[in-house]
Every structure is written in structure tokens, then in C-alpha cells.
Model the fold of this input.
Amino acid sequence: MIDEPVHTTKTYADLTAEERYFMASQWQLMWRKFKKHRLAYAALFLLGLLYFLAFTYEFWAPYGIDEQRLDYISVPPTSIHLFDQDGKFRGPFVYGLSGKINFDTFMRDYVEDQSQVFPLRFFAQGDEYYFWGAWKANLHFFSAGEGKIFLFGTDKLGRDLFSRTLAGSRISLTVGLIGVFLSFILGCLLGGISGYFGGTVDVLIQRLIEFAISIPTIPIWMALSAAVPNNWSSLQTYFAITLILSIIGWAGLARVVRGKLLELRENDYVMAAKVGGATDFQIILDHLLPGFMSYLIVNLTLAIPNMILGETALSFLGLGIRAPAVSWGVLIQDAQNVHSVATQPWMLIPGLMVILAVLLYNFLGDGMRDAADPYR
Amino acid sequence: MQTKDLVLEVRNLQTFFKLDEGMLKAVNDVSFILRKNSTLGIVGESGCGKSVTAQAILRIVPPPGKVTGDIILHRDQEILNLADLPANSEILRNIRGKEIAMVFQEPMTAFSPIHTIGEQITEAVLVHENVSKDNARSRAIEMLRKVGISNPEQRLNEYPSQLSGGMRQRAMIAMALILKPRVLIADEPTTALDVTIQAQILRLMKDLQAEMGMSIIFITHNLGVVANMANDVVVMYLGRVVEAGSVFQVFQNPQHPYTQALMRSIPKVGRKMRVRLQAISGNVPVPINPPETCPFAPRCSQFIKDRCDARVPDLIETEPAHHVRCVLYEETGQKTLGMKP
Amino acid sequence: MISYLIKRLLYMLVTIWMLSILVFIVIQLPPGDFLTSYIAAQSSQGTSVDQSQATMLRQAYGLDKSFPEQYFLWFSKFVQGDLGPSFQWQFRPVSDLLAERLPYTILLSLLTLIFTYLVAVPIGIYAATHQYSFADYALSVIGFAGLATPNFMLALILMYILFRYFGMSVGGLFSPEFVSAPWSLGKIEDLARHLLLPILVIGLGGTAGIIRVMRGTLLDELGKQYVITARAKGVPEGKLLFRYPVRVALNPIASTIGWQLPRIISGETITAIVLALPTTGPLLYGALISQDMFMSGSIVMILGILTLVGTLISDILLVVVDPRIRFERKS
Done:
């Protein structure tokens, strides 16, 4: 009992649950703590779902994004019914739609034509599309056949907002990722150099960082975006915008990297490792980096929503992503004034997607931050 | 034992914290008495529950801690059970700082960094007495001088960061004693100080005790300090009292295996050289969901199977006012089983 | 402390200079100079600019000179207060046009700043002292919502609600009858009413962040030893809370007041466009679209300078307010 040897020959499977709790690795600990934060855990799944939908949107969208239907401009969202007017259960279906011009408002009024019933078909053949612009296919998740199903309504040109919103998610959700990735590289590089070398290099880079942080972002973003030529392709514009977003974004990260590096370097355990004979490389890898990584990941996660908001704002102003490319910001352009919002409130739905994505990222980042903090 | 003599009587004190991991029983059935003008030492390793005991007496245990038991304060004309009062009651607030005061281990963190020493000491007065600020200031200056701080008028306007460690601790003592409390609880007051400063602070406390006639509860893990300061000793382990008695009894005739092991681990002058110091094997466990056995059983060199791990031993009085919680003394009050100490 | 002030001031000036370089480069990025787009705009309107006139204009604005020369020309004029002519507005001096708008920008920014802190700090304190309560969760959800909603969307939604359910016409800073009227109590009242929506919209996002910081910092401080000491002294809980942990927790908040300005000015730019406020935002937008080089450059410069001055003031205030920093600087 008293003088038992300290080391044990038990395997992981032999450990009791309590012992496993106390012997978990750093990442296991963080994951366990992360799961406790239920909002963050849910956010992780929802975001995963959103990204999955974004990557495969052609399949989930019932229509193409450029199809204009002059007979169906500014249609409110279509309702899906289960029971017809006689109370009979018919499975999910939509009624036919007919529109008449209202000569008081000079807009179209749409009524459901209950004589026409179009059941929803799943995994149906529909309009052709090019998956990621490369593979031809025509399988859609759902379709109303001859009928029209506009889950989010249509815009002024009769384009299905639901399909366009799904399409827009691909750009809106990835601009943030790429932008943050670029900021990450720049930030780590400059922050790392600054923190590691110290001296004049540090001072110079610090001044640069302060400069980047203190200027108001939107005016600069606006000015930079306005400089992007109108005749560039959608793809080029896309990359230009991500570049612009990361030009300011890196500074915050660099400051964090530098600060953490300086702080961690001073820790006693670094000294202890040195005295114990570890090489500089080992110290960086085994001691500094772990204390670092989680902090970094949290910061990155929280930087993404800013990028999403930035792209949305720029596109909304017409300075960011431009037609025919679609992003949520581009879609909100149609809801630019009170009048539009009042008469076609469904045009704001892409904005709701933005709010959702930003909220989810914030919850996720919060949960990661709680999980990474060893002292709470 | 005369009740006229008593200042504080603690009976069956328990402080439990309900956590996700289980029930943390930081203080688990602790009893002791404190007499007038005497010093009680509470001794134990880190994590044995001594600081929480102090917090429990003043009822400043942070949530989710719950305090049960009796904490009886003997006043001239009445007695008061502090454990019965709600934690935020006005009566308790009046007692804190005025009748029972506390001094902490780390004076740098115990003082507010953004207020001057003067502001914090005068606050101690102004919170309890309706006097002018000037009056409070002059009393503070006088108190600072009494604890041996030179140039008190100037010190009053300084921030804690501007004082040395020893001066800070003196200032904290001044702040605690300015209203002449009957009980001073000192929670490891010298642990964070240099040895020479330590001696000065201890002497200061002894002098002030004699001058003001107060009782001290001295919490520490340092046996040498206990031997120096205390009249009576309580040895704690894992939230329980394992031995209690006068300082002579406990030091000259330690009975609990834990106390004996503590005594053995002190380096003594005149000892044989080249003999290893005897450490106590194992570590102090965290008292979460502690088993109902002798708390020291897993580390005890005199462990007896089926007796020490069967139930919690009772406190037995082996000689007048000397109590021990160990199965070795259960039958006759004398040690009957096991090896010689 | 004086040396710190001087150093800080110098840094700010250097930063302003760096900003001017950045702004100049950005303004010049679009292909062609202003003249080409001016001519294009004129011809689309039906008037044509003949060659000699074009050359004259080119020379007058130094467009035939090299890039660095143009920069020095522009910068030296700028620091003297000559912000150049606006091409959109028939060559009226930019400074005139800005003078009409800048005061409202500053007013709105300052009011939003005050609003943000007045709302966020008490909520943060409440959330920290009532951790995990329903109110705590509810407030953080609202805060998050404010953080997540793009400014302009919030503006649109609120505009819609006010219009649809309250019949209020919002937008702009003045009702039609007061726009060109002289200043009176009524006009001020009208202004105040119209300011509510922009302040709310711009401020909400920052509120969430400050609540989080306040809550977190206060929670940290509440567990610290000096709070226990004060309690052991018998200080009543309410006084204890505000005199000690709140005061300490306010320091990092106070130190970053100025740093809210970049966010506020950014938010104000977009919100103003949506709400059609007579501030610098819509002016900048119009200038960028029509390549009004002097206008857009000046506005970005001025917004940047406003921000930098604000952060300077905030840094100075921090040194004055926090005794710990004062003493660290002395030694």
C-alpha cells in the first residue's frame, strides 16, 4: 500500500472511467469540455450542415439560379400543404399559382389555384445543372413537377429565391474561410517574427499592426472594392474580395500571436524545459505551440463572422461580389429600402441566413474558447 | 473548562460543496474551542480544509459551499450561533472586522491594487463606526505605527504595490486589528514571507495579543511556527480533526500516526547526519465523495485491514484534553495495537 | 508621463502619414485617372469635353506628373486644409461639402459611443453577479443577436417595424419641415428623435462585445482575494461590489473606449447609406461609385484621423485613470 511503484502496466481499456477522466490528453479534455457547452456543440453540427448544403447546393435547389420567369415576379413564398380543401390527406403538395395585375398597386397579386394539385416529388429529375460548373446532372432533391414551388418566393425577375439563397451560401460561407486563412498566414508570419526576433523588427511590425487596427475597416474596404475593375470575372472578383477582407484582418491575429508568444516564452516551464536539456525546436513544438494552438483556433473562428459580415456589407452596396455571381449580400440588395421591405419582406431571408451563420460561428467560438481555457 | 473563559466554540462544523464531480467535503465534522487570550493552531497540509474552516467561521464561504454545525460566539452578556444566521445578515457583517478579524496569506493580492493603504484601513473603521474621516485616519496612522511601520503618514497615501512584503503584511495586521477584535484569524500569515521577516511578524502578533488581550486562531502548515505561537493545537487531515490537544501534549507525545509522521519529517538540529528525512508516502487526496473510513488509511504505515477501512474512528480522549481519532486507541484509550511509534 | 504623451502623439502623426500613403494608393487603384471617368460621365450626360479643356484640367490637377509627385502635391495641400475639388459636385471644394456633413458624423459617433457604454456596462455587471440566471442567458442571446445582425439589416428591419406598426417615417436626420429651417428647440427635438434609430442600430453590435468583456473581467475579479478581504472586513455587499471588483474591471473597459471608434465609424458609414443620413457615409459611397477622387480620399483620411485621435485620447485617459500604469511608467 505505502511503497507501491508509481508506474503501472495497465492499458487504456483497463482504466476505470474515473482514471480515464484524469489521464485524458489535452485534446480529449478540450473536446469533453466543448461538448458541455451545448450551444456550441449544436452550432458545430448546424454549421456542418450549412456547409454541406453549400457544397452540394445544386442538388438541393429545385431550380437554377438564373432562370427568370416573367410570369412569376415577386411571388410570396409558396405554402406546402398536406391536406387538400376537402380535408383529404394527399401527401406534401403545392397548388397551382396564377397571378393578376392589381391596377391599384401596379403589382401582381398571386392566388392559389386549388384546382391544380402538384404533389412534391423527391429525388426527381428536373432542370439540368452543372455540379460545381463541371459535371452535368439533373437530379434534384425535390421538385413540384409541373407546378411551381418557391419556398422563399421570387425576386423582381422571377428567380427562385430559395435556390439563389442556397447558391449564395457557397460564396458567403467560403469567402470567410479563405479570408481567414490568408489572415492566418499573414498574421502568424508577422506576429511570429515580431515576437520571436524582438528588437527593431518587433517595434516596426508593432507599429504596422497598430496602424492596421486603428483605421476604420468599412471605408477602406469600400475604397478597395470600388477599385476592383468591373470587367473582372466573378472568380477574380471573388478572390479580390477575400484578399481585401484579409488585408485588415491579419493585424488582429498578428497582435494575438505576438502577445501569446512573448507571454509563453516567459513561462517557468519553458525555463524548466531548457534546463532539462530540450532544444529550441522541441520547446517550440512541445511547450509553446500547444498553449498557443487552441487560442489561435478560437481567434480564427471568431474572425470568420466578421468576414462574412464584411462581404455581405460590400456586396449589399454593390461593391463586393457582383452579378451574375450570387452571395447573400447580393441577394439582400433587392431589399434595400423600406418600400421593398414592406411589400416583399421575404427578400430579407438571405439576411436571416447571414445572421444565422454569424450567430452559429459566435457560439462555436465561445464554446471553443471555454474549452481551451485551462483555468475555468 | 470554564465557559467564562470561552470566546469561540465550534462544534461539528461541516462545509460541503456540491460539484459536478461529486460532493466536496472540505470541512467534515470539525470541533474545537478557543479561549480568551490564547492561541489555537490549526495544522495540516495544503488541501486539508483549514482555510475553509476559517472562512466558515466568518461565514464568507463562496457558493456553492454550505455550512452546517454550530459556531458559538461567546459575548459578555449573550451567546450567538453564527451558523444559524443567513450569510448576508447585518449581524454577521457587524461581527466581521470588528469582533472577528482575518489576516490573509498573500498581502499583495489581499489588498486592492487601485486603492491606497490609507483608504483601505480607514474603510475598516468607517464601515463599523460613525466617526469622521479624520478620526479614522489618525487611528490608522497610530495603528500603522504600532505595527512597526515607519513614517506612517506617508505610507497612508501609498499603494500596496509600493510597500515591501513585510510592510504589507504589517499593514494588513494593522487593518485587521484597528478595531481591537476579540478574535484574530490568521490564515498562513507568514508563509509568503522571508524567514527573518517571518520571525518579526510572529513577534509582533504575540506582542499585540498580549497588549490587546485577544485570541488568535493561527492556521499554518509549519510546525515550527505552531510550536512558537500556539497554546493549543488541532491537527487536520482531509477535512477532519485527527488529533487535538495542548501544544505540549501534541508535540511531546504525538499519538496519531499522521501527527507522528509530520513530526518525523521536520529536520532537527542535532539529528544524525546521512539519515534520510522521512517523507509521508502518497499524496493528499481531494476530498470529493470521501469514503467513510479513517481519512489517513491509504497512507498510514500502521494501517490495519478491516478496522481502519471499516468506519470513521471516533475521537477518543487519551489524556485530559488530548484527543485522537485513531483505531489504535479505541479499546482502552491507550494504544493497544500496532508497532511502537 | 509627459514623455509618454509626446511619444504617443508622434506615433499618431506618423500613423496619419502612413494612412495618407495608403489612401492615396487606394484612390489611384482604379484604372485611369479621374479625368477619364469624368469625361465618360459627362459624355453619358450629353455634354462633351474637348481635348484642350481636358489637357487644361489635367495640368491643373497635376495628373500629368509622376505618381510620387502627385502624392506630395495632394498631401501638402491636404495638411493645409485644401482638400481638393469634388468632381461630382461641379468642382465645389470638398471641404465645403464635408463641413456640412462632418459635424453630424462626429455627433452621431460620440452619442453612439456613450450609448454603448451606458447600456453595456450595467448589463455586464448584472450578468456577472447573476451568473447562469435566466436574465444572464436572455441578455447574452440579445447581445449575440445584435452582434450577428449586419448593421444595415438591423436598420432595414427596424425601419420596417417602425413604418408598418407605428406609421413613423424614418430615415434622414430631420423631418421634411425642419430640414432647411433655422435652429430651434423644435429642430433639436426632431434631431434627437431621428438619432434614436441610428444610435441603436450602430451601437447594438458593440454593446454585445462590451457586455461579454465586462462580464468576463468582473467574474475574474469577483473571485480574487481582495474581494474576500473586503467581505471579511464587514463591508456590505453592494458597496463591496462597486468599490472593488467593478472599479478594477472597468479599467480594461475604459482603456478600450477609443478603440470602439473604428467600429462605430465603420458601422455609421453603412447605416447612413441605408437610412439616408446627412453624414459622411453616403457621401463616401457616392464618391467611390463616381470616382470622385478628392472626395473619397479626403473622407477616408478624415475618418481615419478621427479614429486615431479618438484612440489617442482614450490611451491618455487610461494613463490618467489607472494608478498602476502611472507607477509603472515612473520606474
Summary: Residues 161-197 of chain A form the longest helix (37 residues). Chain A has 13 helices and five strands. The first strand of chain A starts at residue 81 and ends at 83.
